[in-house]
Amino acid sequence: MLSLLRKPRSEARPAAPAQPRHEPDAHGAAQQVVRSIAAKVSHIGRDAAETRGVLDDTQKVVSDQVAAMHQLNDQFGEVQVSQQAISQATEQSLQAVAQARAVVQQVASEVAGIVQVLHQVSAAAADITQIALQTRLVAFNASVEAKRAGEAGRGFGVVADAVKDLAGRVEVSSKTIMGTLAQLDQRIDTFSRDIRVDTNTSQATTAGSEQKGAIHRAFEAVEADVTRIDEAAAASRETCRLVNDRTLELATQMQEAKTGLDRATACSERFLRVSEQLIDELAGCGVATDDTPYIEAVQRTAAQISQALEGALARGDISLEQLFDERYRPMQGTNPPQHLAAFNAVADKLFPPIQEAMLGFSDKVAFCIAADRNGYISTHNRKYCHPQRGELTWDTANSRYRRIFNDRTGLASARNTRPFLLQTYRRDMGGGRHVLMKEVSAPIRVAGRHWGGMRLAYQF
After folding, report:
1. Tens-digit pLDDT profile for residues 275-317
2. Disulfide check for 416: which of 122, 266, 289, 421 has CB 3.0–4.6 Å away?
3. Which helix (H) or strand (E) holds 138?
């Protein structure tokens, strides 16, 4: 890159011979140009990170909206199924009313037969009453004649009195039957008349006005209510259909927008990667840039962590298997989720002195932490190592230890094996707040194996 930067200067002054005493000036100018380019690329990286972050946020919102639209469409489908069931139920109700009317018609015929039988019973009771009356008269005459016969007619008189008494009882019973039949006939006649009015739609005149029977009015009320339910269900069904069509259209449009966002996100990812590669190459070209002190500092810190862990292995404080443990055990009741690992105790003892010292390296430093190769942070800086208290926003920002940060930046830093890796990203601070950061990382090696990465984040 330095040769490319020098070329325009040599072309600008072709006649000037290359003099050794001019080399320091040319080298200084090249360094100045590199620093200027690095500063501009740094701004480009910041803009790329901001763009990528905004696209990520928008993509999440659109994805949630697309999922919500699909769920809404499913719910509308369920509503339409329920409305169809209501329509079927109302149709069955109307059929049941029609069947009830037919049953009532049959009942009307049976009631008419009962009325006729009751009339026959009433006539028979009247005949019995008449016969009983005549029997009483005959018995009375026989009793008179027996008295006239004197002693000879005494036995006949006893019989005549018994017959007269029996005839009286029969007459009373017949009159009781006739009275009861009259009341029953009146009630059945009223019921029969109502049924006839309902079933034959005949006219019943009361005080000169036309009235429908009670049963007919009840049937009409039921039919009216069922009809209104059916009409309401039909109107609701049509409304749901229109809304469902619209939501399907919106879901399609949102899916298209999501596809466009996916393409834009992929482009921003490439743009961000290129800007990071440029920053990385400029930082590693041998010319000091604004990022150079942080690169050198994180490399020193990574070496200190490596030495501390190797010392723990040598002392027998931890085994190699425990140090490279990947069986993260969830901590119950934590949100965001926290996990335990076999090397927590050693990390809690060895990491804080080294990590906390880096917070005083510059007022721009946000954090300095060691992550294993899966992005697991056993021990964070003390200001971020507070126990969770059940408030998601606060816990997200202040309880960052024992957590796995396997996002794009975190995982890249944890798994980087090059001398250093420089990245630009937006840090989620919780509660919808984000901060644009740079992060430089260096690999941590223990016993010849890659354990993870030292992450140093600082503000622009």
Report:
1. 666 666 666 666 677 888 999 999 999 999 999 999 999 999 9
2. 421
3. helix 23-149
| Euclidean distance between CA atoms 48 and 6, whole angstroms | 29
pLDDT tens-digit profile of 437-448? Answer: 889 999 999 999
Q: Is the dihedral of CA 413, 416, 418, 419 positive or negative?
A: positive
Taking the C-alpha atoms of residue 42 and residue 143, their distance in angstroms, rounded to an integer, is 143
Distance of CA 224 to the CA centre of its chain: 38
The closest of 434, 428, 455 to 444, measured between CA atoms, is 455
Neighbours of 180 (CB within 10 A): 13
Contact of 80 with 237, CB cutoff 8 Å: yes
Summarised one tens digit per residue, pLDDT across range 130-176 is 777 777 677 777 777 777 776 766 666 777 777 767 777 777 777 77
pTM over 0.70: no
Describe the crossing of helices 214-283 and 154-200 by its angle, rounded to 10 degrees.
40
Q: Which two tokens stand for residue 20?
A: 């050794």
Which neighbouring-strand residues pair with 322? none
* CA 124/CA 117 separation, integer angstroms: 10
Task: Give me the residue label for tokens 């354990």.
Answer: 451
> Using an 8 Å Cβ cutoff, are 297 and 434 in contact?
no
* SS3 letters across 254-313: HHHHHHHHHHHHHHHHHHHHHHHHHHHHHHCCCCCCCCHHHHHHHHHHHHHHHHHHHHHH
> What's the confidence (pLDDT) of residue 144?
76
- Give which of 249, 252, 254 is closest to 62, Cα–Cα: 254
Q: What is the pLDDT of residues 192-223, one digit of tens each?
A: 666 666 555 544 444 433 455 667 677 777 77
Q: How far apart are CA 161 and CA 139, in angstroms?
A: 7
Which domains, and CATH codes, for the chain? 80-230 (1.10.287.950), 292-459 (3.30.450.20)
Q: Evaluate the omega torsion of the peptide bond into residue 293 and state whether it is cis, within 30 degrees of 0.
A: no
**Percent share of the chain, pLDDT over 90:** 31
**Terminal Cα distance for the chain, rounded:** 25
Q: What is the mean pLDDT of residues 267-281?
A: 66
Please count the CA atoms within 13 angstroms of the CA of 281 that sit on its side-chain side.
10
